[in-house]
Each structure stands twice: as structure tokens, then as C-alpha cells.
Amino acid sequence: MKNYFSASFFALILCAPVLAQKSEFGVMVGTSFYNGELNRKKLFFLPKFAFGGFYRHNFNDHFSAKLCFLYGNVEGNDALSANAEQIQRNLSFKSVVAEFSGQIEINFLPFVAGDTKTRFTPYIFGGFGIFKFNPKAYVDAGDYVIDNTTYTVDNGGWYALMPLGTEGQGTTAYPDRKKYSLTSFSIPFGIGFKFNIANGLGFGLEWGMRPTFTDYLDDVSATYANPLNLRSEYTDVAAVLSDRSTSGSTEPNVGRQRGNSTNKDWYSFAVATLSYTIKTKQPKCAAYQ
Q: If we measure between CA atoms, which residue out of 119, 118, 120, 123 comes closest to residue 107?
């Protein structure tokens, strides 16, 4: 009898994780924003529409793993800053951010997804992500004077900044400055709340920050390059978009600080989630088959 109960006890332990496993599929809708050289501290500044989807695997009522895809836009504009130096620098950009990440979630309260007997829980999450971006800036057609030299933009519009090497990347004049990659890594972390609103149906609110491994999400990092070098190796557009300052100073900006390479850029997603829970089929335990 004692051996029977011992065997039963261990069988239940082995089977419990299987019986507790549940899967969730969900969608996310919300907003995205950025922090970096063109927006140093403000949260939810110039927010843009964001959306995505996720798969969550619930190991138990406190611990989950999530695969997540999010797509949003971020933007920065010196002209909207309260800082006089930024206003004079006059840089701006916009970029898409497409992120795929793996995350771990820890619930503060016992929570069974899709079961209204457990109504809600706050949670924290953290993980690792990879994302693509592509900073662009707008310029009007016309003549621009930089350091007493006139540069002409024939076609106004939005230009992708990485190929233009606006800080001298990829030019012979700046051999130590290489073209940056449009794919980088991030570390998502944040907080959220989950709610069971009906059997099998869940709702959530989540906000996560993402420190990145790049300082070029906004195309601003180092010092001003010589616009003459950019003209000769790229185009007049590259020279114009590299230095859009409005200081009116007769001193050239070449070599002056344009960004801060010691601080990497961040972006953030704040989203509402809607999920559907699928219970894993409960197989018979081997001990009872």
C-alpha cells in the first residue's frame, strides 16, 4: 500500500506540468515612441500607431514565456524641443521599427489564463529582441548654404539616411566610420496587467521599454562631417541633411558634436492586448494507462 501511494504521488507530480500547460494567441494595438538624441527624456513624446501579435505559453499560474512581434513608428524633431541647442541643431527623423522578441513573464498573483476564477494579475516581463529600422528625413527642393558653400537639392521628399552617410560613414575622409546596420538588438522589459474577461478570453495592458544596441535609430551619434566630402562621395542631399542647423554662425560645424555616442537609443511600446486561450489536450498519464 505504501509503495502504491508513493508511486501515485510521483505520477501526479510528473503529470501536473502537462495538465497545467495552456497556450494563448493574441493581438496587440497601441502606440510607440523613441528616446535618444532628439528626445532625451520625455515619455510618450510624438507617439505613433503600433500593432502586433503574440503567442504565450503558460507553464503555471505564475510563469509564462512569450514570442512577440510588434510593428510601429518612431519620430524625433529638434524643433519641438525646449532646449535651445537642440532647436539650433534642427535635426529630425522618422523610422519604422519591426521587432521580434522572446520574453519571460512573472505574475504577481496566481493567474490561470482563460479561467474567470482568477480575475487579474499585474506582471513584469523581460527578454531579448531583434528589430529592423530605417531612419528617414524630409528635405525641400532648393538651395542651401552650409559653411559659405551652396548645395542644391533637386528633388524634395523623404530620404533614407543610412545610405547617405550623414556623419561621414563609408567615406574615404572618415575611414573609421563604417555604415551602420539597419538591424539591431534590444532588451524588452516592462510591466503589465492581465484580465480574464470570459472563459478562454483575456484582455491586457502592457508597457515596455527597449534599450538598444545601436545609437543610429535616429541617425545621430558622433560629430559633424565635412559637407564637401559628403558632396564629393555621395550627393548634395547628403550634405544638406547632415547639417540642418539654424544657428546663423559663420563658424563651420565640422568636427563639432552632433550626437552622443556614449548613450544608445531606446524605443518603447505601450499596447492593449486581446488573447484567446487554448487548453492543451490532457493526455492520460503513463502511470494510469
A: 123
What's the pLDDT tens digit per position in 169-228?
A: 999 999 999 999 999 999 999 999 999 999 899 999 999 999 999 999 999 999 999 999
| Cα distance between residue 252 and residue 87, in whole Å | 17
Beta bridge partners, 183, equal 132
- Backbone φ and ψ for 277, nearest 5 degrees, come out as -100, 130
Question: What's the CA gap between 162 and 216, in Å, rounded?
Answer: 9
Nearest-angstrom CA–CA distance, 236 and 244 = 13
pLDDT score for 147: 86
Q: Would you say residue 13 lies in a domain?
A: no
pTM of the model as a whole: 0.86
Q: Where are the alpha helices (DSSP H) in 52-173?
A: 84-89
Number of domains in the chain: 1
Alpha-carbon torsion (87, 92, 180, 155), positive or negative: negative
**DSSP-derived secondary structure letter, 288:** G
- Render pLDDT for 63-74 as a digit per residue (tens, 0 to 9): 999 999 999 999
Mean pLDDT rounded to a whole number for the chain: 89
3-state secondary structure of 194: strand
Structural domain includes residue 15? no
Domain that holds residue 281: 23-288
CB atoms closer than 10 angstroms to residue 201: 15
